Please model this.
Amino acid sequence: MKRTTIKDIARQLGVAPSTVSRALKDHPDIGLALRTEIKKLAEELHYRPNQLAVHLRQRSSKLIGLIVPEITMFFYPSVIKGIQEIIQEHGYNLIMLSSHESPEKEMENIRICADNEVAGILISLSRQSEMYENLEYLRELGIPLVLFDKVSIDLPFDSIMLEDEEAARQATTFLIESGCRNPGAIFGNPNMLITQERVRGMRKAMEENELPFKKEYMYFADNVVEAEACAKLLMAQNPPPDGVFAMTDEVLMGSLSVIAGSNTNIPANCSVICISDGVLPYCMTPTVSFLHHNGLELGQLAANRMFELLESGEFINDEYSGVKKTVQAKLIQLSSTRQLVF
Amino acid sequence: MKRTTIKDIARQLGVAPSTVSRALKDHPDIGLALRTEIKKLAEELHYRPNQLAVHLRQRSSKLIGLIVPEITMFFYPSVIKGIQEIIQEHGYNLIMLSSHESPEKEMENIRICADNEVAGILISLSRQSEMYENLEYLRELGIPLVLFDKVSIDLPFDSIMLEDEEAARQATTFLIESGCRNPGAIFGNPNMLITQERVRGMRKAMEENELPFKKEYMYFADNVVEAEACAKLLMAQNPPPDGVFAMTDEVLMGSLSVIAGSNTNIPANCSVICISDGVLPYCMTPTVSFLHHNGLELGQLAANRMFELLESGEFINDEYSGVKKTVQAKLIQLSSTRQLVF
DNA sequence: GGGTATTGCGCAAACGTTTGTTGTTAATAA
DNA sequence: TTATTAACAACAAACGTTTGCGCAATACCC
Model:
């Protein structure tokens, strides 16, 4: 069965399609009597505007493109939830693409979004590749862009990121304050800005406390499995670390059982802390304190910034170089009572 | 800067738009010389077809609607990943909507998909509500539908689901075979079909082994926090259960620490098993064996079924009542060595 | 050389909207 | 009465494609 269109309504009532269109929008040009009659019929026929046509005509859709490197159970679900929340409020919808950590796929995804005339794009970059010209393409098309999470700090676009350096500094400080003098760390992919920031944060905390930052106690793992391997190497150091900073949930997941297993008593002999979205630390044993970086909030902020851009139109300007916002991480110190932070 | 359109190319070359359109599609009607010239210019100008226009003209988009109750870190990420994989292969994209467990929102989401002329819809129903007429709406519009995970068995549509009853039966059997005579269980929302199936599966296993199915040892929890509370009640039973079946990852997460904490030795005094997507059981301590229900596979199956439908067009038929497929769960018995199943 | 294919391309309509302009009628003002 | 203005609605173009049809011009056949 065909959807009923404006033309159908117009034909049945013997009026012009333009009249129907205006009537449905309460345009004062259409007399009240006719207007209500049209609305009534539209209702009866379950008329719904064809968005494709609307958007084609208006040269922009109510779609927001979301491009992520990969959909994992870590972090992204809550970010996406935050984004969804906001854009649904605005009557927009999400078209979601994943790049599989490939810059080519990422560029293609950007193009796909553009081809569908999305109103804006939210993107979490896959790696520290030179995306600048790709993103510049969007500026030329007048499509606003908000980077989130995995961003490149020097790109002249809006971006919402975590205070990575500061979170890592706080995490390390927490270890030091709980007595560690020789903490180790397992970071993520060393090419990612987020990793570099967190390394810097740890180094900073060490320096502030006049402790040496030893490279032998720093490992870099690209995934859960590597994290497990790194943890083994780390714990085998002599002397073993008296604390471990796990950079992400993934790292924590791979490493905690190794740390706990290597005749170490947590937190008596070895404190553990991580930066987390706030779920995993509760369900692992032992529970670990963490710096909660709120994915939901980050998603909301990114989406809200998107709508600010859409309303103000500031991004149209060639000179516009974006606004950077950061989300603070909050230290959550786990006692024995479980308090879930969903 | 405006996107270059077919018209732009046509104008620059002094030919008709239709000629350009055909040339770009290698239509034999257009002479080889002109054809290559057009292609060359299109390339230079970075021409990309406006999908909105293409779809409007062709009365169907290359979008697949995905409607889920809520985006959580449990299960859905892997399902979505599986879906993405398949539809990207087919050159389709995903428009994702969440219903917040509200039937009204769900209906609205279906409408939104229809308004955007999606090629098909993949949906995981929010609750056991009478969605039949809502879904019937899609049939009328000729939009194929594939239900997944949370399905209503009696709906005349394609659906991909887990073998819930069988998985629960196997899980329970595993408990019994490892010595349990008085297992308890924590299930999910009792209104969901998936819960009912799993209850049935457990009951079946108990009957097969001539053990009593005691209601006092069965609890129903809607979320992680409730699961924790249920676990406390369960463990307080006299005598305490000698095994626990956790119906989902969420339940496991809420309950394991309680079970482990209540002066019980896992698995010596109390075995634990759950049905899981295959991540959480590894990262919890103690690690628990589980029936792996593969979200990735389920997503892939659902998406593949969608394309079968799109190609065959069988769903057009008013009488078409859908095909039910199930995904088997596999028992993963965790030894002390961690083997991650990503 | 008359007829018939064949090749190569343009015309125009269509998808379902929106919106600027024009036109008709009736009401008001001069 | 005539001019002015409002009120209402139709017309038509446009968004960027695709596609059935028609029409030349060239090629082929006997």
Residues 3, 5-7, 17-18, 21-22, 25, 49-50, 52-58 of chain A lie near DNA strand C (CB under 10 Å from a C1'). Chain A touches chain B through 59 residues (CB under 8 Å). The domain at 54-161+296-326 of chain A is CATH 3.40.50.2300 (Rossmann fold).
